[in-house]
Write a structure and sequence with these properties.
single chain, mainly beta, 2 helices, about 40% strand
Protein backbone atom coordinates (compact mmCIF):
# COMPACT_ATOMS: atom_id res chain seq x y z
CA UNK A 1 0.00 0.00 0.00
CA UNK A 2 1.48 3.30 -1.10
CA UNK A 3 1.51 6.32 1.15
CA UNK A 4 1.48 9.76 -0.48
CA UNK A 5 1.64 13.30 0.77
CA UNK A 6 0.73 16.70 -0.65
CA UNK A 7 1.87 20.04 0.75
CA UNK A 8 -0.16 23.27 0.85
CA UNK A 9 1.22 26.74 1.51
CA UNK A 10 -1.37 29.39 2.23
CA UNK A 11 -0.93 33.03 3.20
CA UNK A 12 -3.66 34.26 5.53
CA UNK A 13 -4.70 37.52 7.11
CA UNK A 14 -7.81 38.70 8.91
CA UNK A 15 -9.89 38.81 5.73
CA UNK A 16 -8.56 36.38 3.12
CA UNK A 17 -6.55 33.29 2.28
CA UNK A 18 -4.20 33.18 -0.73
CA UNK A 19 -2.98 29.78 -1.89
CA UNK A 20 0.59 30.16 -3.23
CA UNK A 21 1.40 26.42 -3.30
CA UNK A 22 1.85 26.37 -7.09
CA UNK A 23 4.60 29.03 -6.86
CA UNK A 24 6.65 27.26 -4.18
CA UNK A 25 9.99 26.06 -5.54
CA UNK A 26 11.06 24.72 -2.17
CA UNK A 27 11.09 25.39 1.53
CA UNK A 28 13.05 24.44 4.59
CA UNK A 29 11.63 24.42 8.11
CA UNK A 30 13.76 23.98 11.22
CA UNK A 31 11.90 23.06 14.38
CA UNK A 32 13.36 22.64 17.85
CA UNK A 33 11.07 20.84 20.28
CA UNK A 34 12.08 20.42 23.91
CA UNK A 35 10.05 19.00 26.75
CA UNK A 36 8.18 21.66 28.75
CA UNK A 37 9.32 24.53 26.50
CA UNK A 38 7.73 26.49 23.72
CA UNK A 39 8.91 25.13 20.40
CA UNK A 40 10.84 27.52 18.20
CA UNK A 41 11.08 27.23 14.48
CA UNK A 42 12.33 29.17 11.51
CA UNK A 43 12.77 28.57 7.83
CA UNK A 44 13.16 29.73 4.28
CA UNK A 45 10.92 29.50 1.25
CA UNK A 46 11.63 30.15 -2.43
CA UNK A 47 8.82 31.22 -4.74
CA UNK A 48 8.87 31.21 -8.54
CA UNK A 49 8.76 34.79 -9.83
CA UNK A 50 9.62 34.19 -13.52
CA UNK A 51 6.35 35.85 -14.55
CA UNK A 52 7.04 38.83 -12.23
CA UNK A 53 3.82 38.03 -10.40
CA UNK A 54 5.35 39.21 -7.09
CA UNK A 55 7.72 41.97 -8.28
CA UNK A 56 6.60 45.35 -6.88
CA UNK A 57 5.51 47.70 -9.66
CA UNK A 58 5.79 45.07 -12.40
CA UNK A 59 2.03 44.69 -12.92
CA UNK A 60 1.75 41.11 -11.64
CA UNK A 61 -1.23 39.77 -9.73
CA UNK A 62 0.58 39.95 -6.39
CA UNK A 63 2.78 43.02 -7.00
CA UNK A 64 1.28 44.75 -3.95
CA UNK A 65 1.22 41.63 -1.75
CA UNK A 66 1.56 42.66 1.90
CA UNK A 67 4.05 39.97 2.97
CA UNK A 68 4.55 41.23 6.50
CA UNK A 69 0.87 41.19 7.49
CA UNK A 70 0.20 37.54 6.67
CA UNK A 71 0.45 34.23 8.45
CA UNK A 72 2.00 31.48 6.36
CA UNK A 73 0.32 28.16 7.02
CA UNK A 74 2.07 24.95 6.03
CA UNK A 75 -0.15 21.86 5.94
CA UNK A 76 0.43 18.38 4.61
CA UNK A 77 -2.23 15.92 3.41
CA UNK A 78 -1.20 12.31 4.03
CA UNK A 79 -2.98 9.51 2.21
CA UNK A 80 -2.35 5.92 3.30
CA UNK A 81 -4.26 4.47 0.36
CA UNK A 82 -7.65 4.50 2.01
CA UNK A 83 -7.92 7.69 4.08
CA UNK A 84 -6.48 11.17 3.93
CA UNK A 85 -5.64 13.22 6.98
CA UNK A 86 -4.29 16.75 7.17
CA UNK A 87 -1.45 17.75 9.47
CA UNK A 88 -0.81 21.35 10.49
CA UNK A 89 2.98 21.62 10.22
CA UNK A 90 3.75 25.27 10.98
CA UNK A 91 2.27 28.76 11.16
CA UNK A 92 4.92 31.39 10.50
CA UNK A 93 5.45 35.05 9.68
CA UNK A 94 7.76 36.69 7.13
CA UNK A 95 10.71 38.50 8.70
CA UNK A 96 12.70 39.21 5.52
CA UNK A 97 12.12 39.14 1.77
CA UNK A 98 14.70 39.03 -1.01
CA UNK A 99 13.93 39.33 -4.73
CA UNK A 100 16.52 37.43 -6.79
CA UNK A 101 16.98 37.37 -10.57
CA UNK A 102 20.02 35.93 -12.34
CA UNK A 103 18.68 36.57 -15.86
CA UNK A 104 17.36 33.02 -16.20
CA UNK A 105 15.47 32.38 -12.97
CA UNK A 106 13.54 34.94 -10.90
CA UNK A 107 12.77 34.00 -7.31
CA UNK A 108 11.44 35.48 -4.13
CA UNK A 109 13.21 34.18 -1.02
CA UNK A 110 11.33 34.56 2.25
CA UNK A 111 12.91 34.22 5.68
CA UNK A 112 10.35 32.90 8.14
CA UNK A 113 10.00 32.83 11.94
CA UNK A 114 7.57 31.56 14.53
CA UNK A 115 5.37 33.94 16.53
CA UNK A 116 7.48 33.91 19.69
CA UNK A 117 10.67 34.71 17.78
CA UNK A 118 8.80 37.49 15.99
CA UNK A 119 7.47 38.87 19.27
CA UNK A 120 10.86 38.50 20.94
CA UNK A 121 12.51 40.99 18.61
CA UNK A 122 10.17 43.75 19.76
CA UNK A 123 11.24 46.16 22.47
CA UNK A 124 9.42 45.64 25.74
CA UNK A 125 7.88 48.94 26.79
CA UNK A 126 7.21 48.11 30.41
CA UNK A 127 6.97 45.04 32.53
CA UNK A 128 5.80 45.09 36.10
CA UNK A 129 6.83 41.75 37.53
CA UNK A 130 4.31 42.14 40.34
CA UNK A 131 1.41 42.63 37.92
CA UNK A 132 1.38 39.44 35.85
CA UNK A 133 0.95 36.09 37.56
CA UNK A 134 -0.46 32.92 36.10
CA UNK A 135 0.39 29.94 34.02
CA UNK A 136 2.86 30.17 31.14
CA UNK A 137 0.08 30.26 28.54
CA UNK A 138 -1.66 33.15 30.36
CA UNK A 139 1.58 35.12 30.65
CA UNK A 140 2.39 34.40 26.99
CA UNK A 141 -1.07 35.57 25.97
CA UNK A 142 -0.62 38.79 27.95
CA UNK A 143 2.73 39.45 26.27
CA UNK A 144 1.27 38.92 22.81
CA UNK A 145 -2.14 40.55 23.32
CA UNK A 146 -1.55 42.95 26.18
CA UNK A 147 -2.93 42.62 29.67
CA UNK A 148 -1.72 42.00 33.18
CA UNK A 149 0.21 45.27 33.14
CA UNK A 150 2.08 44.48 29.91
CA UNK A 151 1.73 46.33 26.60
CA UNK A 152 0.87 44.14 23.61
CA UNK A 153 3.48 43.33 20.98
CA UNK A 154 2.40 45.26 17.86
CA UNK A 155 1.55 42.36 15.56
CA UNK A 156 -0.02 42.88 12.14
CA UNK A 157 -3.75 41.98 12.08
CA UNK A 158 -3.77 38.34 11.04
Amino acid sequence: MACTHTWQVEFKDASATTDLTSYVLGFSLHQSVQIARNASYNGYMHLDNNSNIFTPGAGGTHQAFDWFSKIIQFTCDINDGSTTSTADVAHMVVVDIDFQDDGQQARVMLTLADFFSYAGRDQVVEIDITADYGTLDEIGENILNGGGGISAVPFPKF
